[in-house]
Amino acid sequence: MNRPLPALPCRAWARAYDRDTLAADTVAAAIVTILLIPQSLAYALLAGLPPQAGLYASVAPLLVYAVFGSSRVLAVGPVAVVSLMTAAAIGSLPPDLRADPQGAALVLAALSGAMLLAMGLLKLGLVANFLSHPVISGFITASGLLIAAGQLKGLLGIPLDGHTLPQLLASLAGQLGRVHGPTLAVGAATLAFLFGVRHGLAGLLQRLGLSAGSATLLARAAPVGAIGLATWASWHFGWAAGGMKVVGTVPQGLPPLGLPPGDPALWRALALPALLISVVGFVESVSVGQTLAARRRQRIEPDQELVALGGANLAAAFSGGLPVTGGFARSVVNADAGARTPAAGVFTAAGLLAASLWLTPALYHLPQAVLAATIVVAVLSLVDFGVLARTWRYSKADFAAVAATLLGTLLLGVEPGLVAGVGLSLALHLLRSSRPHIAEVGRVPGTEHFRNVQRHAVQTSERLLGLRVDESLYFANARSLEDRINDAVATRPALQHVVLQCSAVNAIDASALDSLEAIDQRLREAGLALHLSEVKGPVMDKLAGTPFLRALGGRVFLTHFQAVAALAPETLQARAGTPPAPTDAARAAAEPGVTR
Amino acid sequence: MNRPLPALPCRAWARAYDRDTLAADTVAAAIVTILLIPQSLAYALLAGLPPQAGLYASVAPLLVYAVFGSSRVLAVGPVAVVSLMTAAAIGSLPPDLRADPQGAALVLAALSGAMLLAMGLLKLGLVANFLSHPVISGFITASGLLIAAGQLKGLLGIPLDGHTLPQLLASLAGQLGRVHGPTLAVGAATLAFLFGVRHGLAGLLQRLGLSAGSATLLARAAPVGAIGLATWASWHFGWAAGGMKVVGTVPQGLPPLGLPPGDPALWRALALPALLISVVGFVESVSVGQTLAARRRQRIEPDQELVALGGANLAAAFSGGLPVTGGFARSVVNADAGARTPAAGVFTAAGLLAASLWLTPALYHLPQAVLAATIVVAVLSLVDFGVLARTWRYSKADFAAVAATLLGTLLLGVEPGLVAGVGLSLALHLLRSSRPHIAEVGRVPGTEHFRNVQRHAVQTSERLLGLRVDESLYFANARSLEDRINDAVATRPALQHVVLQCSAVNAIDASALDSLEAIDQRLREAGLALHLSEVKGPVMDKLAGTPFLRALGGRVFLTHFQAVAALAPETLQARAGTPPAPTDAARAAAEPGVTR
Is A551 touching B (CB cutoff 8 A)? Predict the structure, then answer.
């Protein structure tokens, strides 16, 4: 993380660019372009914007990413979750500000771009770390459900309002009588076809003799075929005249260059949503990028990614787009289709530019129900309730974070859900580390090793208490240690020495240092001595100049064994105490691979 | 912390109560009563309340604490910092709600009492841990300065407004022409006398032949003498008639029993201030209680203290008082005067009850300037700018927390200052643990020990990378580890094995587990294997049932040495690499008492 930001990663691959690479990148770009045309339209509609915004957002941002991005195969553009967050952000604006959704989307992209760029230049990529995986999982699943529920609008041909599940369901209940039959039929047929393709086509094609790679690519292309077929049918049979909603007129032309609207109230109102969009988009993009880079033993530079995504969003803001990030499906297709360098992204941008110049009239008759079906199929693959069961088994705290984020997002909306999840996961983490595992340790007979007296048959002394604190000492847990030692002193009359084994103490902050001083002083006043053993280098560096160490009643020992040998040598002769009845934990501890 | 809450700690000492204890407690109570009469008046005035509220707050709360408290010598009542917070909370109410300050103080005491009681019954004493020592130090120093600045009102005989330093100074600047000369003279003389007493009297008395104990007690009693003398002079010379502000009529009688006002808007507005008062008061009280208990090798039970302080505040709320907590000065006097049990508190309450019944007419002529001087002397002992220098030397993060709290409290007020300090210290802690110390380790030649390659001359292998993570793995730092390993894999072509030495990993949350799975999978795809060594018992217990451990490409080794011996045995023959030039850190690490 400490290397200088490579300002132009493209120089590395541009130098070695040759004809083979060009051919590979061109093929990949052609395939991704075909995939991206309907996807861009659909995600723009999902964000509540005119369809062409999606095309525009897939041109300039790709060019910028190709220059600044550190991933070789990441494909940026509008993605489902970010489009949902964009819709929610615009929808929660006061009425006067949401009169111009496209302008608001440009402000969001500009704000998000500036924030990402700033985080990148300040090397603050670690901000994204505070979105824990449980929070992300809960959020993605809830977003997928919200998006799918919202698509009932297109699938049923009815108006639907709301940014939470209860709102959407209430709106749906009031509109059920107005379902448009032909729209439902086309939507349901497309859904059935797409699910069939997703779950069986590749296997079928392989059994028909195609190679696995070709079968997969063809299966991925099938939806585009369906879209083409539906558009032809809609035109041929005049579905639009029968009341079916179609994409309609998409203006032909270059992306419109221009500034986002300058209303300060709009910028202020969108600042928090833009921050959340930035962080969520960055996390999604980096996960995709890291996964794909690792397959080729390449790596991506998170801070450089921030710069590139920031630039991509600024480009979207100045060319009529919407917030963008690296998308999973398109990046995987890009990589699988053989893309070798970000030049593939440049060619994809050219393809989409051509589409927005010449292809848009052909999209007029594309039924919105078909686009809605492609979105539903795409987002339902994001829904993963299994994470609830997995986190429940592994850790109740993580489960609570998933559940809070999931329910918060579904019931309160994307922003409150995300904020609640992040807040809860931070609070639970602090709570856990504020109650550290403090083990009393004794000597494993015949060795220089010390282990938890509750898990092992070990030798101890009445005169010496050895405590191993399994946590860095800081303000939230310093008092726990005081309490533990106060307890021991009050209940063990023969006690003379307390030795803290610091092998797992990675840091001691000023509060904990005060606590150690207080412990030392109280022990001295009661006629006991406090000692330390196995203090780590970085911790000792900091303790070295402190009054605590100068005043310490006891000594600092290199190893816990040396401490016991010096302070309570009778322990080394003592027989091991009776071990406690073996518990599950103790049995697990006795298995190979488990220490302490 | 896991013992059941002893509902009535008083039963322990009441059973063994005898004539000796009675005598000791009575003497201590008499001395504390004399100290508390002026202090209670002064702190009530500081809170912006009529003086008798202070007396009432020193009766019922003491009785309740005597029954439920776990400290033998803690003396509860109004204290400086909590009274300042009470004044600030009432002062920041909207005008219609602050018309009745006494009613607002009762609501604060009731809310605070209920919160403390709830925290105690839920065993949430650890909430107080989130006030780090730097935050407390900065807050106490700033509070002392704010209180002292506010007392210029009494010392100069002018009206002063404001709850922040700029407000107080601006108010002072506008009033300097109206300073009341005689008030200033009396105030300055009292200040000089009290500072003299505090810094020299005990020594002087000892040189005159008194024992150290008696000299200290006499020095502590001297202020009461000064107050008596000033009251007599004020009455005798008719200072009140000359325009000097005196305490005036303090109603005679029992504390008024009754309910706090029921206005829901008032309760809502005071909820956050009450929470802050509860936490600050609890932390102050517990620190005092622990310090005094440790001297006698006793202990206090933090959760029981919450119950007792909660009860004390509820008692204050129903008997015309104000928020209370355990005070430092009075508890030390109580302990030094020989109090053995909380019965001394019962006798003190009786003394103050007697005072409020019969002594209040005698307080009519007590000049407010004298009370202001006693407050200034008391609170200036709280001011400690040294903490800035000490934390600066020890840790810049802790210094930032002190400075932010100090400046925030002085410039913005007690609540914003405290909230800013707590927020900053949490953020800095998370930031630190999100950038864990990850050391590459090699073998110390001829031993089974492994140390940081940057600090020691150790043996390593090109085929094996040993990493020791000096932090628990959780969501905020999981990505750091991924980055570190991605880096290594991309830059070391000969690498075959990555071994994580987990001796300092005290916990692995679900996010970190996901990261480990991702690392393992990426390494496997690149033809490498991930191994673990020295996993702790509690961590292994949790990992045991996970798909990560079942799928792990590598193995789990009991010790790091076993891992190296099995995976890269050539290391054990290799010569040590050239050690890096010794840095300060390396030299420190070479000193005795420092491991790793």
Answer: no
Between CA B466 and CA B464 the distance in angstroms is 6
Please state, in angstroms and rounded to a whole number, the distance separating the CA atoms of residues B305 and B285.
8
Is B393 in CB contact (< 8 Å) with chain A?
yes
Task: Summarize pLDDT for B89-141 with one digit per residue, the tens.
Answer: 998 898 888 889 999 999 999 999 999 999 999 887 777 777 888 888 898 89
A129 exposure class (CB count in 10 Å sphere: 0-12, 13-18, 19+): buried
Least-confidence region, from A245-254, B379-388, B487-496, B571-580: B571-580
Which amino acid appears at position A332 of this protein?
Answer: V
d(CA B95, CA A236): 73
- Could you give the CA distance from residue B83 to residue B49 in angstroms, rounded to a whole number? 10
Task: Measure the CA–CA gap between B151 and B156, rounded to whole angstroms.
Answer: 8
Residue carrying structure tokens 């800081």: A474
- Write the residue in B432, B480, B525 that is nearest to A295 by C-beta: B525
* CA distance linking residue A111 with residue A277, whole number of Å: 10
Are B558 and A595 an interchain contact pair (Cβ–Cβ within 8 Å)? yes
For helices A19-46 and A328-336, give the axis angle rounded to 10 degrees. Answer: 160
Best mutation target among B71, B130, B132 (most A Cβ atoms within 10 Å) is B132
- Residue of A129, A532, A589 lying closest to B434 (CB–CB): A129
Q: How far A173 CA sits from the closest chain B CA (Å)?
A: 38
A493–chain B Cβ distance below 8 A for any pair: no
- pTM for the model: 0.72
Residue A476 CB-density burial (10 A; 0-12 exposed, 13-18 middle, 19+ buried):
buried
Percent of chain A residues topping a pLDDT of 90: 35
Nearest CB to A537; choose among B452, B471, B482:
B452
User: Does the CB of A542 have a partner CB in chain B at under 8 Å?
Assistant: yes
Give B-chain residues touching A591 at CB under 8 angstroms: 540
- Angle, helix B80-91 to helix B271-295, in steps of 10 degrees: 180
Mark yes or no for CB contact B1/A585 under 8 Å.
no
What separation in angstroms does the CA of A277 have from each of A290, A419, B509? 20, 12, 25
> Do A429 and A161 meet the contact criterion of CB atoms below 8 Å apart?
no
- Model pLDDT, residue B297: 65
What is B438-590's CATH superfamily? STAS domain (3.30.750.24)
A16 vs A27: CA distance, rounded Å: 19
Q: Which two tokens stand for residue B117?
A: 């009681």
Spatial contact of A507 and B432, defined as CB atoms under 8 Å apart: yes
- Name chain A contacts of B514, Cβ cutoff 8 Å: 133
pLDDT bucket at B575, cuts 50 / 70 / 90: low
The predicted pLDDT at position B5 comes to 54
State the pLDDT at residue A586: 40
> Domain spanning A438-589: which CATH class is it, in words?
alpha beta
Q: Provide the percentage of residues in chain A whose pLDDT is more than 70.
A: 94
More confident of the two residues A381 and A4: A381
Please answer whether residues A346 and A79 qualify as being in contact, where contact means their C-beta atoms are separated by less than 8 angstroms: no
> Do the beta carbons of residue B154 and residue B369 sit within 8 Å?
yes
Residues of chain B found within 8 Å of residue A562, distances taken between Cβ atoms: none
Are A126 and B507 within 8 A, CB to CB? Answer: no
Q: In chain A, what are the domain boundaries?
A: 10-425, 438-589
Determine which of A56-65, A533-542, B210-219, B401-410 has the lowest per-residue pLDDT on average.
B210-219
Give the pLDDT of residue B312.
Answer: 96
Q: Is B399 exposed, middle or buried (0-12, 13-18, 19+ CB in 10 A)?
A: buried
* Whole-number Å distance between alpha carbons of A419 and A52: 32
Which residues in chain B have their CB less than 8 angstroms from residue A455's CB? 537
